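User: Hey, my collaborator sent me this sequence without any context and asked if I could get a structure. I don't really work with proteins. Can you help?
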Amino acid sequence: MNLKKISLVAVLAISQVAAAVPAFAVPVSTTTTTGTVVQAAEATPTPVMAPEPAATDPLPPLVSPGTATPTATPTPTPTPISTPSAMPSASAIPAATVVPLATPVPAQSAIPTATPGTITPSGTTGGQIIPTAGANQLILMMNSNKMYKNGTPYLANQPMAVKYGVSYVSIRAMVEMVGVKYTYDTKTKEVIVTKGDSIMRFKTDSKIYTVNGNKVPMKGPAYQFKGTFMIPLTSITGALSIPYSVDNVGKRVILSLNMKPTASFTVQPTVIYAGQTTVNYVTKNSSPNGTAIVTEQWGGNKMDIYDQPGFYTVTYSVTDASGQTSDPYSVTFQVLQPNQPPVANFSSDKEEYKMGEPVTLTDLSYDPEGEELTVEWTNRALAFFNPGPVSIQLKVTDKHGLSSTFEKTINITSEQLYTQDEVAKLFTVPGDIISMDGGSIPGLPNLQYNLSSEGYKLIRSNSPETVNSEGVLYRETSVGLTRFLVHHMNNMSTRQKLYVIATNNNLYPTTITTQYLGIAGPATSPEYTGKISIQKYYQSMLNNSSYGTITLQPGQSMPIMTDISKVAMKPGEVLSLSADLSSDLAVQYNVVMVEQTKDPVALLPTLPLLDRDGVHNRGTYDESTRIISVFDEVGATQSKLVLGDNSKDLNLVGVDPMSGTAASNSGNFGVLYKIRLESVAKNTLITFNPRGGNYLGSIMVNGSIINLPNKGNLSSSDMNAVLYRSGEYTGPVDIVFSVASGSNLPVNLVFTPILAKK
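Assistant: No problem. I've predicted the 3D structure and written it out in structure-token form, which is a compact way to encode the shape of the chain:
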């Protein structure tokens, strides 16, 4: 072969290698992102292409108006891949060698040998700059498929390009360079990228990607070009948390790759006592590219049990399979003096008692650290009725489980002071239960009283009590004084939120004033939520803690009493609300239940009106405050006051506005009773007696809230919760009562004359 033929073959070979590296026009730009601008330059041939719109991406415009756009290297259509799978190949690989899409540049003839960051003499390399790169850097050349990772050149399957003013890169080339996992779902046309605990999904032709289901907007839609999935550069760098800077002179984007794993830990428990507490170190570590963690390193003063109090610092780091070590993570915590056990102690007012004589015990227990103690009595009673010595024990336990017990013996003589029944009626504390013959109570005379009312409009939303689908549970318009009783259970498979939405349909602003408010739940017990919501409702009457105003503009809708929607209801959980409001203009109120992530105001126009369940009550009722005034003396003889029986105390009559049908407020739930007893005889006991079944709630007597009962519930008509004793003087008594949701009606207030104390 002669010299001319050899030269021709060499020229053809060099031409073929050069054709494998596409060349594009290099635009001039002055726009930068945050980061350091590095001086460099790269010259490439300039083909003539159709113009693209001006760039609006945070990156500098890759193609100025009227200049050429890059031409992509032709690539074969990828072979379909089953779901999920690796992303389809996007470029032709010469010969039979299979290499990654972002591949090291194969031949030194394509990228001339030169010292990185220097310009080789003209005529040797064409004056091309080889970009310098520090450790953990990825450099993308603008309008090119060239990339440099830690100084090593690679070729992407498609060059960086601009489409509709947005800078795009091959997502596969990016994730391969970063070293994170990815698959391509051919059915949904999604690229699924996994980095640590984050799963990111990018969908063809969508301007939204998701991170663990949460939507994130992009500046442009993802698209596929000749088998390559292209993504806005700012989106993939944001998704992978990769900081970058732009070198406008060198026409390159410099990405900082943190390849080191991360490590952290927490110390548990939060309170540690020297010599007593076993310390647990709960670690968390990960590698940004999913490389396995192979070793852990601890430093500082790491111990399982610390003998001495003081401050200690512990450090933690990890090393992955590639040899990269995380930055050390440090925690400083305090070890306290050893916890001391509490001291149990009590005293009695006497050492010796008659049978039936009240025994007064005073708890003198304490904790050296001043912590709250759990108290447990053994053999404690109001009085004892058998002669002889009686041992009483008190055990106190601190929150760390240390306990102490104290025992004392008193003596009971054979002399009788009171009977058991007399002791119960004279000395049982309010809220505790005493036994009375429930069968005799209905035959007692009912108090005669004067009845009046206050003009609160009651909105009772209690049907469907068990909610099976999203929708509007109640809709009503009210002006002025308005009372709410809301009680519903989530019977759906997802977490739901309950809202009360107020809408101003007037031409003028309206102000809503919250007066009293009680909210309880979410909880699984309907009786418990009913009891606590009423209890909080009373408390707001006493301390005015719920008072507040909001102003609605014309046409505005807004959730009110928002504490009811702070916590989503799990399936089977119940929420209860009792509230008094007022408004200066008419307001439409909607009680709605929707899935926890949804906007109830936006959905309100499309939510269905839910039907009643046919068991529980809903309706709108006027005059829902009943004022009962008793002027005759009460307690000289045994009597009762019946509430909620629809005979002596008639149900409120109203309407269900959602169906337009009449409604009767069975049990008078939501009614506020204000009972004024002008003259209660001395030595009168007032008790609360359930007649319709189980009851759990509270009542307010002379400004004190009393549990019904303190422990357990009132499940029998023989059970009476003590409310009040008049003592040695005749005087007035004020009682405020509203039925607790989840409980049963009717109930009686029983007035019983009792023995004067000896």
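In plain terms: Helices lie at 3-19, 171-178, 233-239, 420-427, 526-543, 600-603. You can pass these tokens on to your collaborator as they are.
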